[in-house]
Structure formats: C-alpha cells, structure tokens
Amino acid sequence: MTAGKTGRIIVLHLAVIAALFAAQYFLPAYHHGNVARILVLASFAVGYNLLLGYTGLLSLGHAMFFAAGMYGAGLPLYYFDIGVIPAFGLGLLASLALAFCFGLLALRTSGVAFLIVTLMFAQAFFLATLYFNEITLGDQGFVLSEQARTLNLGGVGFSFADPTVKYNAALLLFACCMLGCLALVRSPIGRVWMAIRENEPRTRMLGYDSYRYKLLALVLSGVMSGAAGAGYALLFAYVGSTFASIQYSIFALLWALLGGVGTVLGPLVGAGLMFYLVDIAGDFTSSYLLVVGVVLVVLILWYPKGLLGSLRERWLPWLP
Amino acid sequence: MDFGPHLFLALLEGTVSAFVLAVTALGLSLVFGVMRVVNVAHGEFYMLGAVLAWWLTTLLAGSPAIGFGVALIIAPLIVGAFALAADWLILRRIDYHPESTIVATIGLLYIIQQLVLTFYGPDARPVEPPLYFRVSFPWFGYSGYKLIVVGASALLLLGVWLAMARTKFGLYMRATQQNQEMAQAFGVPVRRVYAIVFALGAMLAAAAGVLVVPIQQAHYLMGLDPLLLSFIVVIVGGLGSLRGTVVAAFVIGLSDGVISVFFSPTLAKIIATLFVAMVLVYRPSGLFGQPEEEA
User: Fold this and answer.
1) What does the pLDDT average to over A116-138?
2) Touching A: B residues 79-98, CB under 8 Å
3) Domains in chain A, ordered, with CATH?
C-alpha cells in the first residue's frame, strides 16, 4: 500500500465529514433534522457492515443490538435520570454484553444456520421487550424528557432537543463509527477478517483462530450498533420496541447492501438514499415499504455489490 | 372451568393449530429439503391464501360452503402461479445461491405484503365458515369447523406423502434432494423440479391460509407468525425430513397451545424461539442434514 493511496483515502473520508459539518449551515430545517437522523442510522449500518461486509457474516438480528443500546441508555435515563454520559455508557455496555454472549453461542454455527440463529435470538429479544411491558412500556414506548437529555459540560448545558446540538452530536457519533471502521479494516485485524470472508478454512490453516476474530467482529459490530441505538434514544427522545423488530435488522442489511457491502462510506450512502426513497414514497402511498422490497430484489438481481461497490469495481479501485 | 376440561380445551386448540402448522411447515420443509434455500416469503404465501379466500368468498356470495370450496381450490392455484413467476423471474437468475435467495425472498416478502396492503387495505376481515355446527362436550361446546380443519389438513399431509412416495415426480424430488448433480446426470429435469417444488411449497402455505381464515380473519400482517413457527418446526424436525416436520409440528403446536392457555402467548413464543436457536447452536449439522461443505 503506497503512501499516496493512504493519503487519498484519509482526505476523502475527512472531506466527507467536513462536507457533512458544512451542510448544517445550508440545509433547510426539515432536511437538517432528516440528515441528523440519517447519520445515526448510518452509524448503525456501519456497525452492521463491519460484520457482513468485512467478515462475511450475514446477520438478521442486528436490531437486537441497536435496541440493547437504546434500552440500555433509555431505561436508566427514564427511571433514574442518571445523566447523558452514564446513560450512553450503559447503552454501550448493554450491547457489548449482549453481543459477547450471543457471539459465544451463535458463532458455533455458520451460513444459513447462523442467519436463522440471529433471527431467532433477535425475535426472542423483541418479544421480551413486549413481555416485560411494565418496564419497557412495550410497543407504545416512552419519551425521554428534555431535561433528562441535557448534557452538562462545565456548567454549560447542551440540550439534545436543540437542532444544532442534535446535528453535531449525530455527526460526531457517525464520524467516530466511520473512522473507527476505516481504521479497523485497514489494520491487521481487518485483513484477517477479509481473509475469513474470502476463505475461512484457509485462514484457519494459516494459523489464525477464526472463531476469535469472528467474535471480535461481532462484538465490535454489536457495540457500534448499540452506540447508534443509544444515540438514537438520546437525540430523538423516543424508545420503543419497534426498533427491536425484524424490520430494523432488515433495514440495516438493506442500507449496507444498497450503499455497497464492504465499503466504508457505503452505509451512509445506503441509509441516506433509502431514507429519502421511503420518505418520498410515503407521500404517495401508505404502502411505502414496497420500495424496500423492490430495492432489495433489484439489488440482488443486478447490483449485488451496491452503489459504491460497483463504483469501486469500475473506476475507484482504491476505495476502502 | 376445572383444570381437566381446561387442559382438554388447550389440547384441542393445540391440535387444530398443530395441523395447520404442519401443512404450512411442510411447504417450507419441501422447499428447503429439495432446493436448499430458505424461503423467507413463505408466510406471505400463507397470508395471500387467506386474503384470496376472503376475496373469492365475497365474490361468490351465496352459499358460504360453495364459495369456500372454490376458494380452497382456486386460491392455492393463484398463489402457486405467483410462486412459479417468482422462481422464474428472481430465484433462477441468482442461481438459488443460499444467501442471495434469503435477501431476495425478504424483498419478495415486502412486495407481496405491501401490494396486499394497497389493494386489500389494513383491516382484518372475517370469512364465514362453510359449515356451522357445534360439537358438544360435557363441559363446553366446540366449533365443528375446527374439526373440519383438522380433517382437511390431515388429507393434505397424506396427499403430499403419497405423492412423494408413489409418483414419478415424487421420485424426482427425492432424487434431487439426495444429490442434485447425480439426479441431473440421470435425466431428472432439476430446474423444473425446483420450480414446481417452490410452487408446491407456496400452495401448501396458501391452503393452510385458506383453512385458517374462518377461525382467524384475513389481515396483511398475518404471515409473520406462521413463518417463524414454520422455521422452528422445520429446524427442530430436521430439514427436508417430512416425517420430522410433521412430528415437530405436533410437539410445537401442542406445547404452544397448552403454554398459551396457561401462560402468556408471548412467553410461549419466547421459549420456542430460544429453544430452536439452541437446537441450531448445539446440533447445527444434525438438523441441517449434511454438514456444510468446506472449500
């Protein structure tokens, strides 16, 4: 890998963050709010892509990690008002613990069996959020008060209800996830992940303990998804069991597929495009989720590499 | 009611849902066994059967028995034709690649579900049972139609078993299931077998949907539960094993029925999903047929 290539990659990703930072001064209020939401959802998709795109493990249960972060942060904040930073930390911890325990079990399987195990665990998690509705308030969910969502830094209060704070917090979250993903996939660990994706038995034969590497990928992917979930609860104030449903696992898959599996920026492109596609379709029909189905089928039939994946194949071979 | 009659009612309800589940899961099991693909849209075929049954019985509003009889034949045929088209347009083109098929059938799930939402609407609509009579037990009366569901499902299961065991096409299916390449070498039209099996699986789901609609009402989101339950049944029973599927449908259906009566249905589902996940974790190759090939 040449220094020029590394420089180009770093410049590109920093430029994307800078452009997103600058965008807040131009965007009209409606899109301003949308982009903040997209950034949080894209962080979720980046986490998902870490597992699917680089390690080659297809999961249908990532909503469970997103929701673990969400409830991990939301419940203590709602009941005990413990402050924003401890709540976020608890959200991360919850998704970390869940991803670790889940990984220990689920990674004993592979292929289609792994996929169904993720689906089943996530469904059990979703049903549990409904079953314990005295605490979680089930699918009705609960709303976090503005006072609980205010961050005190040296006497200055930052309320996440304020659009500017919200946007920049979302951007910070996304930038951390994206740069973290970039650093990871360019590190020796990332190389081993990709080797596992390409050919697991051969990687094992070279002396790598593929189980450990997959577990690490799953845990990091889960924590990133959990961070997005905790961020969502803090920034948009609502916590409900819909976010744990299969639909959100499918959304993460869809965003990663559309943007390009195994590309660092793909999840952002996928989440942004899909958000606006669904938004526009929602203006015309109540069956706006039809778009989701059509995009999935079209992608799998004609563009299995997604937008940035195809771009990389044709013109930009250096794109990470 | 005392404990005894209560348990009897639970077992009765469990039996009815077990039979319906067996028919639905058998469709999924056939598709997985022969084609080695997981059809995530299976529950939507079930829903489509129920919705078409509502549509056909409203169209033929006269005697409910005739309308329902027509629905029981026509609705699975329509769904089967739709599945054939999906196989030809989508699955064949991605060469039945296992993971791509899952993504494609998720797409199909949304397409079917949202089209039904567009043309049928968000309401749950009832269909009148074709016959109405009550079977009276000493403690309570029971809807006779539910017993007809049991009978019809049993006939369907028997029919599939006979077709698999006694016909030439059944032989083709079993050959493809055992070894696809070898079957092709012996002149089995594997592609056609795939298409027909996919349609057959969809038709079984649709038939189950038609049978259940007088009990349950037709709704565009009704496909998710049978899908998950069928997954559970097919995995526990051993993929591709028809006998295993039927046996597992009874175990799961009855225990689901009994647990649901005495505890909360949600708790029953949590236990069932965790159980099946554990089965997959600890017996992955055993329950998925042969161990996965290593490159």
Assistant:
1) 85
2) 90, 93-94, 98
3) 3-314 (1.10.3470)
